[in-house]
């Protein structure tokens, strides 16, 4: 993030401290250093980069904005039942009331506003009624509105005033008939109607409900030709004629009652009226006198005037025109729409419901913002509900006594051209109270106030020395204002920009300005050229792992300046040996040297990160077997050369295997070995390296296998032969039994199948033949 913002600071090419601090809130100006070859704009950079470039914190200009509360009267806790009543101007519903913000470009300043609906807050209600002929039955029901409404409103406030006004239409064709008879009585038949008029203020705001009833009872219906009415003219006059109407700085309600649509800006052309409405009061004898001269106001014009005069509008209209006025409500903040019965009999309930709806919502608005200034709202409403964006301006469902708050951030993107303070107003719609916010802008650094005009430090007084650099007078340039604009390209001055009398001006990486090289800026702002002749840079150094100076140093004039514990042309060689330590605590297992953080094995047969691998070597046990055998038991292949070849370790004998060192008891690697000699006897030992000393613990007795016991072997063989013979005899006997039983069963079966008597010869045939005469009858 810092890299990105730093780029923004450098890209701005700020030539003074004032220009620098307007780029972004993280940009600072170094009033001390200036590296040779760099322009004045190099002083402007993000704070971290300036510190890395050895600019002392005390010399960095980085002014900050602030919020000061000038008036902070707490919100009023008021009870309607208390005997002592407060005046409207003594009631506070929003806190604080005045603040002063000091803004620096790009740095938002945030403050909190509290709002609390006061109980028993005064209300002024003005009833504006359409008196065209279609509203005749409605007028009868409104005649007693004053006393009835006063009685109902006592439940809400003890300080209530009511007024009345009426409207019909512009008094020109084609809105009304201008024939003499119709100007006297615009109604047809036997209807007695009053002359048409645009707007009439019948009753100023008063706390006398009887007076309201009396004057309204005297009103008569009028008439016009077209269906839409001239209500917008009337609303405009009610809003702007504060003194004539008698508005106080309290809650202001305007009830607009009609059963028709409305004319708006542009419709006046039908009557030849082309002048836009001027938004001013034109009441004479309580009558609007300029309806024939000015067009109807636009909706936007009405919205502005209603907001300026803190008037909340209640549209009491019939069911037929509900869609039209609901659309109008969406365009007018702090307005409500109620459905008026055909004869206005429900008008009191409509007003009470609409008031409760309007008063339960607070919406903040602000005046025109200076160029380059923006505001953001965040609301913290009832039950901790938060809103942002457009919803951050408002809170709903607020009851009397509820306190809500708004966090407002104001940010400036630039200093105003005039450089003076600005004032903006913030207020809740429909309320007279407002918050005044004074905006002061930080357009220059504090060090600029200490600047010395025509300073000797700026070449014979050709500039103002401020914030560590020269601010040149008109017509002068250069770091010290030493040249005029007409002298910047002479050959003599260019010669001062050639290194070693070469041909390249400023090493082809800078511009010769007034005999001094000002190095060019690269697309990547962190890459810079420096030096008297722009011959140095901070990006053309050796790289390692695709990182400049291996990521372990900085590039200074095309050479790496390595961090501690690193060396090499690309700072890629670590001086740390921790990566070379083997498990036994030795560097490279004692078989190599640690070079740039990695082991270089002295014996080529060893390899691995710590020279621990030897693919062609026998195991540790096999490697030391012969020496352990010759020294421990005076046997083995090295018995004759034992003294010469096997003195490299310390031998310690123990009585049995339990006395051997165990791996869990040692802080160094330990190997347990079990080897066999030529006599098939086993011997046990351990091998370890401790503090560069090789130690061998060996069990002093061999484990040899015992000789064979002949008698058990012979007895076993004889017993085996006998058992095998018996088993074979048993098997033969079993097979014979099975065979005999099968033969006997076969004989028994054949015996049962015999069919002759045992006394007869089955093949004997008698020699006598008996012949019978068939005719013989036995006589």
From TrEMBL:
<feature type="disulfide bond">
    <location>
        <begin position="573"/>
        <end position="580"/>
    </location>
</feature>
<keyword id="KW-0245">EGF-like domain</keyword>
<keyword id="KW-0106">Calcium</keyword>
<keyword id="KW-0325">Glycoprotein</keyword>
<dbReference type="GO" id="GO:0005178">
    <property type="term" value="F:integrin binding"/>
</dbReference>
<feature type="disulfide bond">
    <location>
        <begin position="458"/>
        <end position="470"/>
    </location>
</feature>
<feature type="disulfide bond">
    <location>
        <begin position="241"/>
        <end position="281"/>
    </location>
</feature>
<dbReference type="InterPro" id="IPR057073">
    <property type="entry name" value="EGF_integrin_2"/>
</dbReference>
<feature type="disulfide bond">
    <location>
        <begin position="596"/>
        <end position="642"/>
    </location>
</feature>
<dbReference type="InterPro" id="IPR014836">
    <property type="entry name" value="Integrin_bsu_cyt_dom"/>
</dbReference>
<dbReference type="GO" id="GO:0045202">
    <property type="term" value="C:synapse"/>
</dbReference>
<keyword id="KW-0965">Cell junction</keyword>
<dbReference type="InterPro" id="IPR036349">
    <property type="entry name" value="Integrin_bsu_tail_dom_sf"/>
</dbReference>
<dbReference type="GO" id="GO:0007517">
    <property type="term" value="P:muscle organ development"/>
</dbReference>
<dbReference type="GO" id="GO:0033627">
    <property type="term" value="P:cell adhesion mediated by integrin"/>
</dbReference>
<dbReference type="GO" id="GO:0046872">
    <property type="term" value="F:metal ion binding"/>
</dbReference>
<dbReference type="GO" id="GO:0005925">
    <property type="term" value="C:focal adhesion"/>
</dbReference>
<feature type="disulfide bond">
    <location>
        <begin position="512"/>
        <end position="517"/>
    </location>
</feature>
<dbReference type="GO" id="GO:0098639">
    <property type="term" value="F:collagen binding involved in cell-matrix adhesion"/>
</dbReference>
<feature type="disulfide bond">
    <location>
        <begin position="514"/>
        <end position="549"/>
    </location>
</feature>
<feature type="disulfide bond">
    <location>
        <begin position="621"/>
        <end position="630"/>
    </location>
</feature>
<keyword id="KW-0812">Transmembrane</keyword>
<dbReference type="GO" id="GO:0007229">
    <property type="term" value="P:integrin-mediated signaling pathway"/>
</dbReference>
<dbReference type="Pfam" id="PF07974">
    <property type="entry name" value="EGF_2"/>
</dbReference>
<keyword id="KW-0479">Metal-binding</keyword>
<keyword id="KW-0517">Myogenesis</keyword>
<dbReference type="GO" id="GO:0019901">
    <property type="term" value="F:protein kinase binding"/>
</dbReference>
<feature type="transmembrane region" description="Helical">
    <location>
        <begin position="710"/>
        <end position="732"/>
    </location>
</feature>
<feature type="disulfide bond">
    <location>
        <begin position="17"/>
        <end position="27"/>
    </location>
</feature>
<feature type="disulfide bond">
    <location>
        <begin position="536"/>
        <end position="541"/>
    </location>
</feature>
<feature type="disulfide bond">
    <location>
        <begin position="467"/>
        <end position="506"/>
    </location>
</feature>
<dbReference type="GO" id="GO:0019960">
    <property type="term" value="F:C-X3-C chemokine binding"/>
</dbReference>
<feature type="disulfide bond">
    <location>
        <begin position="415"/>
        <end position="673"/>
    </location>
</feature>
<dbReference type="Pfam" id="PF18372">
    <property type="entry name" value="I-EGF_1"/>
</dbReference>
<dbReference type="GO" id="GO:0098609">
    <property type="term" value="P:cell-cell adhesion"/>
</dbReference>
<keyword id="KW-0597">Phosphoprotein</keyword>
<keyword id="KW-0401">Integrin</keyword>
<feature type="disulfide bond">
    <location>
        <begin position="519"/>
        <end position="534"/>
    </location>
</feature>
<keyword id="KW-0966">Cell projection</keyword>
<dbReference type="InterPro" id="IPR032695">
    <property type="entry name" value="Integrin_dom_sf"/>
</dbReference>
<dbReference type="InterPro" id="IPR057243">
    <property type="entry name" value="Integrin_I-EGF_CS"/>
</dbReference>
<dbReference type="Pfam" id="PF00362">
    <property type="entry name" value="Integrin_beta"/>
</dbReference>
